[in-house]
Amino acid sequence: MLTTFSKNETQNMTIAIKLALQGRYGVKSNPMVGCVIVKHSKIIAKGYHESFGQAHGEINALQQINYKAHGATLYVTLEPCSHQGKTPSCAQAIINSGVKKVIIAMLDPNPLVNGKGVVMLKYAGIEVKIGLLKNDASILNQGFIKRMQTNQPFIRCKVAMSIDGKTSMSSGESKWITSKVARLDVQKLRANHQAIITGSGTIINDNPLMTVRLDGVNSKPLRVVIDSKNQITDTSLNIFNTDAPTLILNPDNTKVLASGKLDLSNVLTQLGNQGINNVLLEAGPKLIGAMIKINLIDEFIIYMAPILMGSDANSILNLVIKDMSYKIKLDIVDVRMVGDNIKITATLK
Amino acid sequence: MLTTFSKNETQNMTIAIKLALQGRYGVKSNPMVGCVIVKHSKIIAKGYHESFGQAHGEINALQQINYKAHGATLYVTLEPCSHQGKTPSCAQAIINSGVKKVIIAMLDPNPLVNGKGVVMLKYAGIEVKIGLLKNDASILNQGFIKRMQTNQPFIRCKVAMSIDGKTSMSSGESKWITSKVARLDVQKLRANHQAIITGSGTIINDNPLMTVRLDGVNSKPLRVVIDSKNQITDTSLNIFNTDAPTLILNPDNTKVLASGKLDLSNVLTQLGNQGINNVLLEAGPKLIGAMIKINLIDEFIIYMAPILMGSDANSILNLVIKDMSYKIKLDIVDVRMVGDNIKITATLK
């Protein structure tokens, strides 16, 4: 039977999703979760998972009302956990509080856990409804969901290019292709990722900081460099400053090799095993081409500057496609202006 | 003193502009012109210039009320003509009709005529207001205005490309990069131009029809082929069918040569001299590159398909730009989805 939801229920879940988002810089390996408790049509408590290792969203909400929620309805963006981890089981805390009804946006994506929290709640006689704003709740935790299902993080590839698809001049010159507003947007994008991957070429040529520089935002994504040829030796490079952690993956320190080169898929699994849910790929044409070739990219964020750079400039990806039948198909998810740049969000079809 | 206009006046001019647009397939070398006559706050007549050589918009409106418009206000999108041409002077007809007030969106762009119609009207004691919705009225006749001022048509360059800025595979394969909906949009675009320019390479490789194929639309743009090397000899090519006129420009039949090659700027002046207001450039990377290099393109219409074609494919323009300081700057005028394609309208900065 199709579960239906009222306008009121949808409004409350929307609030829970907005709350969840507030945890975006803190939850790290964990999912973002928001929770709203409603009694007699009034919100009596709100909470979200704020920080890795700290209380879950449901507990933060229940605490506000001293764990007393007799007859209330609890809205939560992700299925409450059934197991005691770093904190007590949320399902148990909900049961103990006297909540009468629980509305859940989506089940736990971990196939080993999926549905167990719901079983606990139902067994305790609580009415449970599932699936309200499921899509929005999934987008919230794209990375966490993918990692739970595949052990690999969600890979978002950021590209700054001209209208004719170029990222640098033949000389290598590439600074300030995009506008100041677009570059600020990239800073926000970085802040929402746990790691940023690039290749040794970018590090050697551009010596980037690869950090988040946004007032009031404390996000320090891991800087990951793919260094297949052991080229990163100069410790005065900006990536070795103390602003954020850095991981250089080279044949010497890495077991993830395939035919003498770094096995990119394995690199991602390694990052997934470290609890990294989402990665921003900010790389040159070679690494982007290699990642696309083995289908490792989930989403592209393209900043397109209103310029033409000409036929001698370098394209966004090094990847030979001989025949139109092998073209790579994308789905355009969003197109908007960011200053005078066009920002395109697209997923691989 | 700044002329101000009321909401009512703006509404009437908006109607006149919409009327003008109805002439888009018929006016050819002439401007599109719409006219509305208002008396006691009611529209008593409407007209537009329908067809080259036929009555102007003002005359078509006046005819409806037997040229009797005593005390009325006449709205017209372009300054009424002062000279007797193929038809009687519109300014004189307006004066004779008894109109009390004339509101004009913009003056005649021809510097030799500009303002003369207004002088006639004012001399006859008619109140004249100028500049209402001038921008909209200018966009209506971009091509006519440019030709009046420079003797050259307005050049709109249409490009169909992948997200990575490619228009064909290295093999030359290029069919169906864009979607069916985008291709229908191109048909509408073609219909709004008096000529379509391409290069001999496109003709030889793709053997295109270069015609408008739209139900109910009778528009037959002149097919112009730039054939610098006298390569178009096969008369069984589609461009030689009788569906539309064709003009092959080669060193044999053309005086517009510079250092042995066709002088593109001169080609455009030749087309302007033939009364062509607007040209759609649908060409390969070479001709587009050559046109950009000497700054001949006014506007780009880019259909971007949600695909990646890879680094071996051909870019949209052959033009070497060595240094970022020489990059070509554009202004994005409009971005919208056409089916699953992104349509970008941009002008040269």
UniProtKB/TrEMBL annotation, chains A, B:
Lineage: superkingdom: Bacteria
Keywords, sorted A to Z: Hydrolase, Metal-binding, Multifunctional enzyme, NADP, Oxidoreductase, Riboflavin biosynthesis, Zinc
Domain CMP/dCMP-type deaminase: 7-120
Catalytic activity: 5-amino-6-(5-phospho-D-ribitylamino)uracil + NADP(+) = 5-amino-6-(5-phospho-D-ribosylamino)uracil + NADPH + H(+); 2,5-diamino-6-hydroxy-4-(5-phosphoribosylamino)-pyrimidine + H2O + H(+) = 5-amino-6-(5-phospho-D-ribosylamino)uracil + NH4(+)
Family: In the C-terminal section; belongs to the HTP reductase family. In the N-terminal section; belongs to the cytidine and deoxycytidylate deaminase family.
NCBIfam families listed in its UniProt record: eubact_ribD (TIGR00326), ribD_Cterm (TIGR00227)
Protein name: Riboflavin biosynthesis protein RibD
